[in-house]
Amino acid sequence: MCWDSPTDRPTYLQRQPLPRSFFLRPTLEVARDLLGAWLCRETAEGLTVGRIVETEAYGGPGDLASHARAGRTRRTTPMFGEVGHAYVYLVYGMHECLNVVAHGDGTEAGAVLLRAIEPLVGVDLMRTRRGRVTDPPFRLASGPARLCQAMAVDRSFDAHDLTTGNGLWLAEPDQPPEAGDIVSGPRVGVEYAGEWATRPWRFWLTGNPSASRR
DNA sequence: CGAATGATACCCT
DNA sequence: GGGTATCATTCGG
User: In whole angstroms, what is the distance from residue A100 CA to residue A157 CA?
Assistant: First the structure.
């Protein structure tokens, strides 16, 4: 399914945002269960929606690959805050990355990095935002920084509540992926973290062209 | 393969 | 307070 007409918008507005309780679970479970869910963004320019196909779980201060390893700082405050909110940061001086705060009751911090979505709605708007008018859809939001650019997510969404359906939110999949289609492996770009870098805390839908390579 | 580009964390005075 | 190594990436050569 793929819609691009504004008249299809009510289809999406009927869909309930994922509730707070979805994110109040172990970070690894949330990272896995976010596969197939829809990331929705509404601006004056129009609606863009993508199906999540790749995620990574990041834990609290004990996880040496996590920004939370330094404890609660100005930057990582959202990771220690209420689950279901966004954690958006700047990396390499020019790229934004979007996380969803998620961890079990009583745990200190944790978040799920959204690494790739498969565009469903607003493909041309994503192309415009990316400045790559000829890109095939599967490439438009494959990679955490491309995803943010295609969905017009920047640091102004840091700590944004993703459960309200306002501007930027997550919605249930129309059909959850089958367990056999979910694969896990080491997280990307965290080699500095030693043994923590080898843990299979990255999840993706096998064979999905929007899921990043490696 | 390496440049781009700036916030952050951490060490030092 | 100030200097600086590092970085959950992307793109073009």
Answer: 11
Q: Read out DSSP for A95-147?
A: EEEEEEE---TT----EEEEEEEEEEE-HHHHHHHHT-TT--HHHHTBSHHHH
CA of A86 to C1' of B2 (A): 32
User: Which positions of strand B lie within 7 Å of protein CB atoms?
Assistant: 4-10
pLDDT attached to residue A21: 97
* Residue range A149-191, pLDDT digits in tens: 999 999 999 999 999 999 999 999 989 999 999 999 999 999 9
> Which positions on strand C lie below 7 Å from a protein C-beta?
6-11
Phi, psi at residue A182, to the nearest 5°? -95, 130
∠ Cα A19 A54 A135 (to 5°):
115
